[in-house]
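Q&A log
Question type: sequence-to-structure
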Amino acid sequence: MATVDVRTVAGKVVRKRELPDAWFGATVNGPLMHQVVTASAAARRAGTHATKTRGEVSGGGKKPWRQKGTGRARQGSIRSPQWTGGGVVHGPVPRDHSVRVNKKMRAASLRSALTDAAQSGKLAVVEDLTFDAPRTKDAIALLSALELQGHVLMILPEPHRETELSFRNLGNVQIDYPNNLGTYELLYADSVLFTMSALDRLTGETSEPVAPSKPARAKPAAARAEKKAEDREQAETQDDAGKSEAPAEAESDEEGDDE
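Response status: OK
Response body:
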């Protein structure tokens, strides 16, 4: 199982964190990542490109000159494709460029990209990353302390206004979240910075002790059934006691009559 150093915002290593093989120990599949990245780029295309055919261009309804006797090549319309300002043959039309990639392929590609990031040494983990107020100077100091250079992909557990504003003026920093992480972003980045909380959210693990859960309360229906059973047992006990007292009273009455 691979490990990574966990650092403070000052760059000091405080401990090591094990990376689960399910996410960071997969086989690096280059062709699969290429297919997913290509499909992702194709899905971002607007597909609004369009040209006009000779039937859609305005004008050209009249034959420019007669068919014979001019010595020139015969022409039927000034909007034919060979004319300047004419229609376009086999030009692009609005369409959808997206390519279908199933969920298993996307998941395998993401695991492959994460494994590549861990093996290439561009993965970094910071213990905690919060800014009390937006300050770009502190953001630059953080990147310098962690020795992160080039294009940095920073992964936060959830949106945080002060942190995002601190890095907004830095063109080489991109902020993303675990549930929105993609293969292209991981491959394009020179450094990938996770917070501990973001890494926990991605892998489904926890790096903090979990508080003991409170005992579950009994459901109202179950509680009522238990109460009925207790009442029934109590009533049966009282009936048995009453039956045992009845013969004793009868015997005392008979003794009184004899006297």
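Response note: The two ends are 98 Å apart (CA to CA).
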